[in-house]
Amino acid sequence: MWISALLFFSLSSFAAPLDANIDPVWLRLLHFQGSKSEAEGLFLSPLGDRDPAAELQATIKAFQSDPKSQCRFPARLLYLRSKAAIVDLPKIQCPEYETWRDSIHATGVELIFASAFVNSPSSMYGHTMLKFSRGGKTAGNSLLDYTLSFGADTGTSSGFSYMWQGLLGKFRGFFATAPFYLKVMEYTQIENRDFWIYPIHLNSEQLELLLAHVWELKNVGFRYYFLKKNCAYFLLELLEVVRPQDEFVSHFPLWSVPMDTIRILQRADLLGVPSFRPSRFETLSLARKNLSGEESRRAKLLVDNPSEPVANDSSATLQAAYEYFRYRYSSQPDSEAKAKIQHKILTALSALPPTATASVPIPRAPDQGHFSSRVFLGAGINRQNSFSDFGYRGTLHDLLDDPGGYEDSSELTMGDFRGRVEAGSVYLEHSDVLRIRSIPARDSWIPKTSWTVRLGTDRAKDFACASWHCFYASLEGGPGLSFSLLSTKLFLLTELESDFGAPFAKHSRIGFGPTLGWQLNPFEWWRFLFEWDRRFDFLGDARGLSRLSGEQSIVLKTNLEFRLKSEIDRGYREAQASVYLLF
Fold this sequence. Notes:
This protein is α+β, with helices and mostly antiparallel strands.
């Protein structure tokens, strides 16, 4: 009788309205956000994704009528027992779950941040995953640890369809476990992305609950959005299960940036000091850093030409050659040429006295870089008037921002809006819905193509326009090349540009032409960018475009910048000063 009374009390307490007495841990286990769950395929009740009390009753009923259902929901079982919401339940063996849990053998958990990879739309902002540190015989060998990642099942989608479906949430995302060495191969060796690994402070009970819930999420789908409901969002939602007092995902009202995951968990005092695992590209860069010109030529020749013999080459030359071999051949299938190159280099290295291997310099950690959003205020003057500018940028980084913690040769901005107050009018001056520029320095060892794409709006200043009717939409992009010289970088981008709006004859202009740029970085806190854009229009308005601009940025603090900019746009001239605050 008392068991029935206790069960009735438990059920009635959980049957309260959603905004009243429902336990937050239970809502976390069901992945409720607001009045509905985000999970698909996680429920025993047909109303479970909308009614957490109904799902609770269905769970308790299933556990009592079919004890084997405990094996499907071990985290729910842990939770109900901790709340004394279910009693007199027989203990059963769950071989499949226990084998899986024992194979992971987790004694701790870590957060991995993989640096940005701008050539993939889903990884432009970086990527986060969890790693479970193993105990037992394999303790200390991190390559044998297991990782947990969240990603979209994109099928065969690619190109524009891939981007469009990802933005609209047409893909389903799933959690998946995999050995850490596979992730090392995929991210640091093939995609050449650095790893930052942060310990997460969880106690043994929290770790047990986390693992049990990961099991429950096997084959459970979630709607995936590139900009918000991505790896960063769902990993934080997963950690909310064991930290129900925290509202992690509420920090992402519009979009989710993986780098911000680190800061959110740091504010909750959950992360320890990170370790750094460099990409193969970083290791190669270090190996060739101190080679002379002849040594560099020899190292490359030994790999490019399988028949080239080793001839009194230094240990540094051979070590650089081997790193170059690994960089170039890591993703290629085995072949006679590959085996021949590897054999001759390793044989020559083994015949030389061992030398100390230099460690890769540790760059600034991503959480030590600037924040991802910003606002700014500025004032300037043109030939007719003085004006004031103001604006907001959602994310992430441009070529004049403090480079610490970011990829220095990449620019990725989204949601960048700039307004202007001039002659009593307020209007939109410029916007970047999306702007990407990748300008890696090209060299003979690692040939890389620069490229750019931009979707946004602008004002036809070259037509002496200063109001809303001068507003036009623009889509532009194309490939190019970039070269480094000391502390400067020169780049040439060939762009096709399509502009549409009222300022133009036939309401459009479509042209093709170069963008020449010079990036000068005398100090990390002081940066210059000069650009010249020239377009030769062949459809619509044929007046063409010729614009020259120069801008400098002075980093006053990590999240505070002062900028000076001047611009010549055909007959138009302006200069302005601005203060940028990042947050």
